[in-house]
Amino acid sequence: MSSGSLTILVIDENRIRASIIEAGLREAGHRHVTVVHDVAGIAKRIAEIEPDVIVIDLENPNRDMLENMFQLSRAVKRPIAMFVDRSDQASIEAAVDAGVSAYVVDGLKKERIKPILDMAISRFNAFSRMARELEEARSELENRKVIDRAKGILMKSRGLSEEAAYALLRKTAMNQNRKIAEIAQSLVTAAGLLGPLEGE
Amino acid sequence: MSMDAPYEITAGFMPLFDSAVLIAAGEMGFAAREGIELKLHRETSWANIRDRIAIGHFDVAHMLGPMPLACSLGLTPIASETIVPFSLGLGGNCVTVSNAVWEGMAAHGAATDLEPARAGTALGALIRERAAAGREPLRFAVVHPHSGHNYELRYWLAACGVDPDRDIEIVIVPPPFMADALAAGRIDGYCVGEPWNSAAVAVGIGHIVTVKALLWRNSPEKVIGARRAWAEENPDALAALLRALHHSARWCQEPANRGELAALMAKPAFLGQPEAIQMPILTGQLQLGGGAERRVDDFFLPFDKAANFPWKSHALWFYTQMVRWGQLPHTPQNLAIARDCYRPDLYRSALKPLGVALPGANAKVEGALKVATPVGSAGASLVLGPDGFFDGQIFDPDKIDAYIAGQKRA
Fold it and tell me: What is the complex's ipTM, to 2 decimals?
């Protein structure tokens, strides 16, 4: 039996992340991958799918419910345990660090599961990195906008060139041991409180 | 780590009111005064708390009382020795049923008095009536298989002639989803901590039929679980934490602080529920549904009656219930692990410098105190109990084999 014949269920409320994992599993040759975003009716789905491996994100508040169901429900014909090998502490730690957990039916060999768990871990980490970079890019853009506004206020009220306005912001930030964007935000806020801004 | 905080401790918690002593320790300055920078992490499931304490993300955590036992006894996927040096309070749970089940119970003699025997007998009659009519068994929810909620619901039903495995179905639902599941008809009742009972009553979808404080008076609920390896490597940090929790618990118990505590817990970072819904657990003044109201003595105690003392008899009772409901075989090895899990010695040594009242024994006979009783203790005076089970049973931790042998499923 090839690894591609395992049936895998991915439970993740985050649709983008779920599709990234699904794509990864398919690229690795797994043809039987089902993605579920909502745990309503999950017992019936599990009974239909009969998954060998269940991958779930740790933010899911239904983990306690799902774990109990894996152990007790008539929907699950074979007992399902968390992870494949309790002794593989490094894998378990890597998974929890990445924010993912895997449940596996009894009797499956470690070698068959490990690549799936490793894939989920790396895709979860990649997703977190992407989300973080997106957030950084967004705040960078916001910072640039507020610095531009602060420069405009200084240029207008103090008759400075753009370069001199930026230099003043930077010097103030250095003196106060704060970020330029913070100084710029304070200036924009203060200007808003003190009088009408340009264009308003 | 800041210069004035020699200890940095990371603690996980679930958004439940009985995390209050831990939250207030961090937010009201009690931890800082003991030289601790307490980092609080809100979690979304008990499974996450269990996994994160096992692999070392958390040093300590707000845990269900039986959970450290389950971790130490190998009932969890990642076995990890977890000890209990501090209890976060006594009581605080209720059993809530749907309006339809309440009507059925009322037709069989239930009254709005929260009396466990009366409510349980009525529920039993309703369950048999439904079975005779060929209807689906009622479905009750608890928060976790290794929880006080699961064991007290089962204890109550079994004592009232209902087999909790055969006559009803028990499922797991996260506390914040209980009321929704009840309203949607996915479950017929549940046992959960506050504010999730009062929340269902407030919107008119449920009735509170009995409370933990009457099923087993002054009984354990949440605890501080600590990774044993961390506790052994950081005895000074742990002792400082226990003193901070002690001062926090005293503050939480004080009626004058109720408003401030409710406002603290209402913050989105903690419970994120309105202040008004936090008051029933603090006052014991419960709305039961349909306009009925009842005041319950000792409904939730974060400090009084030695509420923070990690009694070995509490751990051992949880152990007997794990055995009773087939989660674990009763063996000398398992019993020894259960006996070592709760650590009154650590509690006592940490609090000794404070000169406060401390119980002299590590375990007590549960159900022996029929009324509030002053007890001999080191330092100032201490009042314990009443601590009885509603059915009059006594749990003597020295006669655990006989207790286990005498347990029936229904």
Answer: 0.88
